[in-house]
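re: that chain from earlier
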Amino acid sequence: MSGAASETPHGAVSETPRGAIGRVLLVGTGYVGTVLARRLLDAGATVLGLRRSERALPAGVEAYRGDVISGEGLNSLPEVEQLVYAVSPGERSASAYQDVYQRGLLRVAERFPNARVLLVSSSAVYGSATAHPVSESTETEPDDETSRELAAGERALLALRPQSVVLRASGIYGPGRTSLLARLARERLGDEEREQVTNRIHRDDLAACLEFFLRRRDLTGLFNATDSFPSTWGEMQDWLLARPVPAWLESAPARPSRERRRVGRALSNEKLLGTGFSLAYPSFREGYAAILAQPAPTGG
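^ sequence. v structure.
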């Protein structure tokens, strides 16, 4: 590191930059991308946002309409130095994931042959891997068709552009995402489910991580983007029930149990922290405490 990193209250990491961020294209400006866009603008970067709909982007972002799957609108985009690919498929199907993480991703990468690419992937590519803890050197064992398509997209990108960065994000949570907390507050978990391991990363930490890698152009390859303390669902529920439950959580929609994947692997973020990056929310406790301290949720 050329400068010391320090935490700020909302996932910000201040660092003496090794180089300017430059002109960045955000392909995907949703839950994480919107926060990242604001951070980059505050850092003085030129930010372009590619979107399929008319959804508003933060003030200061140069907005462009386009579609990565069809390629519509891509030729109208100006050249950029770096791009962040954080697109969510419209549905959980093999074809949708193949469209987004292979056809779309490679189409964008080929459109910008000189740009450094940062891909927001998922720890789901590890599937049923039994290594403990799971590190970037652990062989991927996708256990469903969508994860297999995602892993194939990672490999295709790194083969095409070896200097790319792939962030394998664990479960992303943060302001506005309260359905899991609502379920844990109301439903008794069974013994088997209580023992299942879960890995998480706060939205603001993931946005800060992306900004960090945009500054650190010397970093390449695979990184687990996850917090420092994998936990069980039982630990999370016990922690929550030991605290005063805010009134708004009692009426918040709860996530159906069938929507959760029970895999039970503990991820290591040793490689990520070895870069000098610091987490503002090193475990679910700090992150969810901040959410529970809110007077009301900011979303569903």
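Residues 1-17 have pLDDT under 50 and may be disordered.
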